[in-house]
């Protein structure tokens, strides 16, 4: 929903028409090695898409990528950053790291009374090779762009392999990238789309000796498969985890519940950052509205969700639609894992009758029942665990060490904040403290939050630090005498 | 041999006395988990050493390292850089990368007519965990310090595992580091020495789940073992390769031969950067002294080595001594791999009668006989390969793709320089062009050469780029509302 003030009054209609113009058409990209067409996307809103994408041979894409590389290297860090800026703006880190490398220097070594030795040294920034970016089904742009631009800006051709049910946003991006590259007189095969209809084709590409880096966002199973099998490549994996919130006490009970309700509803919990476990002491919490028992906290959170979703227009806008049949299945089987505090309901979408909209399901369980909440379950079925008093922080740390991207904390006690802060340093997770307003634990701000820490199994990289770009290129030097 | 002008007239004697004072003594470091003492070092100069080092349990060192970590994190990037500066100066890259991370910031999000959302965000630099630095037998300091300081300065405790025959330099370094740390009020167990008398102990430590990074310099066999087996750690490996020099033509024939002779003699070729194959066209080369046949080039290079080593004092100073019995064995078996152009000779050392000093052996072979030169053979036994005209550059590139750290080129033709430059960009190796003076292909200048490129199997990292430090720490953030 683009803001009319920022993007113009007709932006929403324009965007919709532009997307609908793609429906039922071939999405041609002028890529080499095309063996056929595929149309695999299924809209969670029940809209017929029928966009057909070129299925290209992986080896042909790699060959084309190699052929495109020297010209990309030749225009240098500044040229590449300029071209990438025309595609998108997120190349600042890559540019900074490359700018540290001097283009050339004259080196002198004193020789006592004799004239100094003088050498000219040239330093060439060389991309490490073909980059593969594997997108996910729920965030096809947000989660594809960091790897795409980090790899491209540092000198590497990029093959974009979108999720088979979220190809269009990637295909549009690839098309624009190819247009900008061609306009700049560069080989458009620096960016290609690998729309594969066979999972084996993705696996073959990921383990191809020429593929030197892989950016992956998605489920833990394929992420771990990539880390274990694509040993020829540097793998940057953003997976998922049991994000958790520790409630120790609060002086803003209602605002806390409102904040948590929004987090659990936003995009039906289909975010790698959404809270999956809420840890509440078994003997309850102190609040500005008096002592609240564990059961009261659970019930009040359920009520808060109900209130938030009372207006169907708000509900459908915030919940979005369930992207995958797997997630629908997880909602269906969730009641087996605990006591249902709030059941998931199907919500009709006024505009899209086929949309699969679901409200969150809320479970209660004992902290001792670890299998109820220790396993990551993507989607809107979080658990609220009853943990022994004062054990919330320890339990949270243990969960994070298994895998987590976000942790929240509610407390009125500075010493609890300090202890939790140190726990998150040890386990490696971003901490949000006492969120009661319009910021939510599952949201990362683009230029001031380190999304993904890269210290626990939920992610082996952050998307916004030097490590994310510095290892994607090498410096090849040459030197010779000068007078 | 310290310069008397720079280090004082008595520096050499002072240094010798300081080392001799260690002989036959326990080298105590006050480390935990000591199970015994070992004295494994054997001097290549035939000097009795008998220094006894504490053998400590790897798990005890890891436990002590973990206990030391929070205090190290607490003093921050500036504090760590300061302490490291007192131990050594090579921490600039690590400091630069850490300084990019703001300590804290206030973030505002406009809310239309309402007051903006304001959050305070804190960013903590957290070392990824225990670092293991595995030294080599020939360069126990130069090759240990980059990893040691990169890991330490970025927040990680470091366990130094020296080569069992080159412990003393590492032990002295560790002792100084521990003294400086303790003086700064920090836990000295941030730097410990792991003097192991069993190879299995090194393997167990390298694959320990708590070890998060490994810096290794040494042979390809153990380096590849580490890369394949220490999957829990980021491995920074500097191995060895078939460094090569392509001679296409020269306008300084004598100076070229002098330069190559010095390279082959320096430290008896026991450097990971020493030339192992010299590629000369089968039909000879153009020089300022007329056309020279392949055999003439070989013979003239041998004569140049003879002349350079004619003065025994120069010879012993430049050659050093053969560090390992394995290298002596490789010299003995080298004649099997080609035609001996110059035989290796044993040279008596005036001061150290037990020193194993050897002059370089020079072999001639055909380029087609790949097994003669394609395999890395550490030590002073390079091959001069007769390659079909104009194929030198292609062959060099193929060798580099297998593994190489340095390449040299002699040519008078700019187009050959250009072609070779592009070949080194593709294969990833540092190129030295027409070295005829006091700079040698096997030497890297500390602050202006990118030692190790990290693009071919000879090394998976450079010692002097952002990638060497940026992945050793993570940023853990926390955020909360502010008014």
UniProtKB/TrEMBL annotation, chains A, B:
Lineage, opening ranks: Bacteria, Pseudomonadati, Pseudomonadota, Betaproteobacteria, Rhodocyclales
NCBIfam families: PaaN_2
Transmembrane region(s): none
Gene3D superfamilies cross-referenced by the UniProt entry: Aldehyde Dehydrogenase, Chain A, domain 1, Aldehyde Dehydrogenase, Chain A, domain 2
Oxidoreductase as UniProt keyword: yes
Keywords noted in UniProt: NAD, Oxidoreductase
InterPro entries reported for this sequence: Ald_DH/histidinol_DH (IPR016161), Ald_DH_C (IPR016163), Ald_DH_N (IPR016162), Aldehyde_DH_dom (IPR015590), PaaN_2 (IPR011975), Proline_metab_enzyme (IPR050485)
Protein name: Putative ring opening enzyme
Record GO terms (molecular function): L-glutamate gamma-semialdehyde dehydrogenase activity
Region of interest (Disordered), ranges: 376-395
GO biological process: L-proline catabolic process to L-glutamate
Record's GO cellular component terms: cytoplasmic side of plasma membrane
Aldehyde dehydrogenase domain location: 128-380
